[in-house]
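User: Please predict the structure of the protein below. I'd like the answer in structure-token form so I can feed it into my own downstream comparison script.

Assistant: Understood. Taking the following sequence of 163 residues as input:
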Amino acid sequence: MDAVVEEGWREFLLAEFGSPSPDDEQAVAGMVADEPHRHDWRVVDAALDRLTCGECGGALGRRTGCPRCDLAHGFRYAAIEVDRPGVPPGNEHAVRVNVSVVRRPEGVSAPELLMRRLFLPALLVGFLPTTEQAQRMSALGKRGARAEEISRFLDALAEAPGA
């Protein structure tokens, strides 16, 4: 899932700046983090990965409970979100949320994290659950379903008409 973010960053850098030096790339990351509403969510997430939090010392936006990281994490949702060609409207939002949760796992339960990790490949190829399917998945996570049960549920979704 880090590759999803890195690919967006590399494409952005190449299109806007060519091949910047490491110092220039760091400066670009700071600029992007200061203006998340002007950039694609993948670019913003990658920029935050390149910046160090002055409070906890980790990658900016990653640590749950660190005030500065929590603020940066919230600002990441101001970024632009455009569905990729060939996917249903809303798929990119589902990818974004799942990537965000998986990359910042401290704030969710282990079953929810597992569910989102297992579901991400389906989202990346363009699947988008209905509201009912998403609610059923959420219920699985809340009740502590194991990988086998989640996998069976996802397999049933993939086999459902219209999937």
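That's the full token string. The longest helix spans residues 2-17.
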